[in-house]
């Protein structure tokens, strides 16, 4: 299994051409430790997705000044990216969408990949929907297909943009645990609006603040994830909410 490596991100400035007046991000520094989960929170529109898109090599529409160091390795080909939109292909079945990486390489589906994909679909509760098409699924089901697709890819770096947002509370909890188990050894960057999710899953947590935004690392979290929802976790959530609340004025 490919092990995740550390990434260091420095953004001097990131600006979209339509927002000439001021950058979206400025003087932002983040360290993603190898094989750990980093959670990123921040008000809507502060630039979280832009960071993920930059790491995934998909930020062609913005002006960027900064530096990304990836522990001596290239990022290209090493990243699995679960975007906010599920990006399922409507003409492919659920199973083929999960196996899209192999399909895109022009290979026919191997028995091994098919078996892994079906096992993942079982784990996300969609085994009996494997032959259906995306239009027949609910938003939460589509999100679970996208999650299975991400989990199937053997990439050392995993970027996830609100992967659990469309799920009911019980399913969300279950799939957080599943993802945490299956992504052991990967370097994960998870964008979320949910302080509880960040506290449960993050080895470290960044909160984005300011306009233009920069990122602030929460002080020592003391314990390793996945964390129980105990008194200490509740305090941390309150602290995060207060910091996010400050951003809303
Ligand atoms: N292609 C683009 N062209 C112009 N502006 C853009 C583009 N993409 C994003 N923006 C703007 O840049 C800012 C940051 O967007 P981004 O999607 O990174 O924020 P976000 O923190 O992920 O938001 P959310 O939490 O709502 O998903 C927003 O003001 C957005 O309107």
TrEMBL record:
Keyword Chloroplast assigned: no
Coiled coil: none
Family annotation (InterPro entries): AAA+_ATPase, ABC_transporter-like_ATP-bd, ABC_transporter-like_CS, ABC_transporter_ATP-bind, P-loop_NTPase
UniProt keywords, alphabetically: ATP-binding, Hydrolase, Nucleotide-binding, Transport
Entry-linked SMART domains: AAA (SM00382)
Record's keyword annotation contains ATP-binding: yes
Class in the EC hierarchy, top level: hydrolase
GO molecular function: ATP binding; ATP hydrolysis activity
E.C. code: 3.6.3.-
Gene3D superfamilies from the UniProt entry: P-loop containing nucleotide triphosphate hydrolases
Domain ABC transporter: 9-235
Family: Belongs to the ABC transporter superfamily.
Name under which the protein is recorded: Aliphatic sulfonates import ATP-binding protein SsuB
Gene this chain is encoded by: ssuB
């Amino acid at each position: 299994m490919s092990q995740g490596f550390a990434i260091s991100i420095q953004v001097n400035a990131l600006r979209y051409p339509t927002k000439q007046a001021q950058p979206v991000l400025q003087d932002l520094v983040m360290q993603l430790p190898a094989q750990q989960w980093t959670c990123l929170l921040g008000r809507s529109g502060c630039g979280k997705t832009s960071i993920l898109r930059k790491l995934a090599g998909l930020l062609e529409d913005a002006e960027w000044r900064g530096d990304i160091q990836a522990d001596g390795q290239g990022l290209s080909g090493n990243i699995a990216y679960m975007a906010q939109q599920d990006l399922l292909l409507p003409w492919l079945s659920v199973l083929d969408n999960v196996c899209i990486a192999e399909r895109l390489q022009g290979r026919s589906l191997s028995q091994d990949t098919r078996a892994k994909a079906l096992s993942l679909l079982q784990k996300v509760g969609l085994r009996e929907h494997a032959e259906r098409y995306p239009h027949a699924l609910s938003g939460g089901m589509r999100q679970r297909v996208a999650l299975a697709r991400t989990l199937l890819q053997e990439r050392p770096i995993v970027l996830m943009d609100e992967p659990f947002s469309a799920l009911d509370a019980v399913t969300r909890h279950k799939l957080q645990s599943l993802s945490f188990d299956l992504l052991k050894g990967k370097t994960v960057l998870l964008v979320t609006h949910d302080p509880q999710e960040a506290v449960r899953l993050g080895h470290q947590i960044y909160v984005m603040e300011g306009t233009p935004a920069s990122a602030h690392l929460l002080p020592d979290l003391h314990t390793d994830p996945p964390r129980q929802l105990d008194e200490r976790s509740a305090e941390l959530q309150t602290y995060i909410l207060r910091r996010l609340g400050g951003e809303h004025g």
